[in-house]
Amino acid sequence: MRIIDAHTHIFPTKIAVKASESIGNFYGIPMHSDASPESLVRLEEELGSERCLVCSSALSPMQVESINNFIAGECEKHPLFLGLAAMHKDYENFDAELDRALSLGLKGVKFHHDMQGYAINDPKCMPIYEAMEAKGMVLLLHMGDARFEFTNPKKLAEVAKAFPKLTIIGAHFGGYSEWDEAYRMPRFENVYYDTSSSLFMLDPQTALRFIDHFGADRYFFGSDFPMWNPKQELERFLKLDLDEETRDRILYGNFAKVFGL
Question: What is the chain's mean pLDDT, rounded?
Fold first, then answer.
C-alpha cells in the first residue's frame, strides 16, 4: 500500500510535550505521543508513509510568522513532510504572509477555529480565503464540535459556496461529533474530507455511508497525530469494507492528485 497521512500536527521539540498535553486537555482525550517532529517521523516510518501533511494553528496573530518559519524549516529538514501555514483572522498583512508562505514551500493554510475562538465564516476570514483562492492555496479546516458553533458544517457550506475555486479539506469526516450536520452538508466540487479523529467514534457502517454519500474520491486518510498513533488509525481504516481500488485512492491517490504529487 502507498500511504499519505493527510493530517498531523507538530511543535518544536522543547514544547512538544506541553503542546500535546494542551490538545489533550482541550478535548479530554489522552494523547498518544508528544508532538515533536522526531516522534512523528519515527511513527510515520513505522507506518510506511510516503508523505505526511504537517501543520500547527496560530492562537494569536503574533504566532503566525514563527509557526510558518518552524513548519517550513521542518519540511526542509524532513522530506517526509509537506507543510501548511498558520494564519489568524487578526493578522493584518495576511496577503504578504501568504505569499511568503508559498515562497517557503507551504501549500496552504490550517485553521482550527474552535481553538482560535472565532467562526469559519467570520467576516475577517473571508478576505483571507479570497486571497488563498487567488493564489491556489489549500484550506484545511478543523470541523465540528458539539461544544461550539464556530466549526458547524453549515458554516463550511457558506465558505465553499462563496469561494468555489478554493480547495477545502473538511477534517474529521467534515464534522467531528456533529455527524448529522456533516452528512446533511451539500456536496461541493471544491470540498474534500479526511478520516482523522473520527474512526474511533464512527462505527464502520456509518463511516462507509459518509464515503458513499460524498464519494470516495473526496476522502484522504489522516491520523491527527499526536492525538492518535498513525499505525492504529490505519488499522481502524482497514477495517472498513472497501475494495482495494477505493482503499488505495483514500490512502494515497486522492491526496496525490489534489496536491500534485
Answer: 95
Q: Using alpha carbons, list the distances in angstroms from residue 221 to 73, 169, 201, 237.
A: 24, 12, 16, 8
Q: Where are the alpha helices (DSSP H) in 140-253?
A: 153-162, 179-184, 204-214, 230-238, 244-248
Domains and CATH numbers, the chain: 3-258 (3.20.20.140)
Grade residue 29 by pLDDT with cuts at 50, 70 and 90: confident
CA pair distance 223, 231, nearest whole angstrom: 8
- What is the largest distance, in Å, between two alpha-carbon atoms of the chain? 47
Q: What is the H or E stretch that residue 109 is in?
A: strand 108-111
- Here the cell at position 229 is 498513533
pTM for this prediction: 0.96
Question: Is the backbone of residue 232 left (phi > 0), alpha (psi -120 to 50) or beta?
Answer: alpha
Q: How confident is the model at residue 56 (pLDDT cuts 50, 70, 90)?
A: very high
